[in-house]
# Entry
Amino acid sequence: MPARSRLFRLAQALDRTATVFMFLFALAQPLSIAGAEIAYSVAALCWVARISLVRRGILQSSPLDGPILVYWLLCAIATLFSLLPASSWEGMRKISLIFLVLVVAHSVSRLERIRQLLAVLFLSALLSLAYSSWQYAAGVGLRVTSLDPGGAAYRAGIREGAVLFTANGRRLRRPDDLLTVLRTKPPGEVLTLGVVPPGLEIVVAKDARPAIIPARELSEPLGAESMGMKVVQARPLRAHGFYSHYVTYSEEMQLLLALAFGLWLSSRRHLGFPALGFAALALVCALGVGATLTRSAWLAATFSCGVQVWFHVRHRWVRLFLPAALILAALGTNAAMHHWRGVGLIDFQEGSSEYRLLMWRDGLRLIRQHPWFGVGMNTVRDAWQSFDLAAYRLTGIRSHFHSTPIQIAVDLGLPVLLAWLTLMGSYWWMLAKLVRSARDQADTMVYGISLGILGGTSGFLLSSLVHYNFGDSIAVLLFWFLMGLALALRRHLEHAPGAG
# Structure
């Protein structure tokens, strides 16, 4: 009895620890990739340790258990037959993030806990959005607007359009910051500038390269002009929050926008409290999606909201209007992109669209050549010379295939693609039934959350056609997290009073 009691107390301690790290995961998710992955890893270890001590009542079956297991096993089998097994096994770490679904589904047992986790997630997202707004106000560096070919800056390798990120280790945000560094540094010390090359749409520290200007070339009066350049405050071209890419940020914001919209749509009084809070949250997330200037995210967000309206509103005329609304959204996106980015929704003269088409064409060729097990994850990355990819030859840019289905089939073969499609189809259908069940039981909170997850999932899957978003660890972690919450909601409805 004492031994059993100790095991029970240990299991409870592990459960509490897993819960704490689930909250840390929700807090870190919009802010830190490393923080989110560490929090998930600790929660997963605690969960595994707990079920090894107390199995009864913890593990409960779901309609996604089989599809998840088959998908993971087929990925592992395909990896065994990879052309570069070591590189491909490295990719299994990303595939294994899918087990977050089970950790969340079996660790979150109460509806109140789901609400608390989402509250923390939204609070963290608001911090991320506030940081993005601050970047626009404070600037991200100093953009070089003109250069004297005979000046010191040009000789140091700086070119027009580059962004000066740091000076002697100090962060630059305004021209006065550079002037302060020049005035306070010792007279004989060189000036080391951290320079982000021109043409990059995101200014982050990892892209900064050193440019050294000798002290003898720094003449009076001190300032950028003395080095032969003119600078202005640089602001982000496309919002990216705390991440290093705007597409990742757009995927995150799209999923959170769908959640907030679902909670507002399910409210009994759309102009009452807290419905107005959900509406404001959805609007702020929509602004975040908009600021990324990502075409696919704009359309995915519109599509996710459209799917929710389709399920929520039963009037036939509203459903007839929805396709027209999506067409109008596409036309609006096209006009907005022409205005802010100088490209159309589908623009074959624009670099990224051309790159996608070239990669898709070669991707289909590789699928025909390796239909069963693919070439292996990361194999194209590590042995790209072996595959004669036109996009690599013509642009010199080495990237992925910019489509989740094509990437899966190239890396892991058609059986894995079929398993992934089965998993996604089963999940979407489960969400649709969950939405209907919650509406029939008049459970407003479950209905709103499940409606939001259904919409966000629909938008994420639409975006996956033109982005490899399932290869983006931070975006797919949020996707798996929401899948786990959906399973927890389903269990809650099954055990609710009056459930059939």
In short: The chain has three domains: 2-53, 65-135+241-495, 140-234. The mean pLDDT is 91. Residues 140-234 form a domain with the Pdz3 Domain fold (CATH 2.30.42.10).
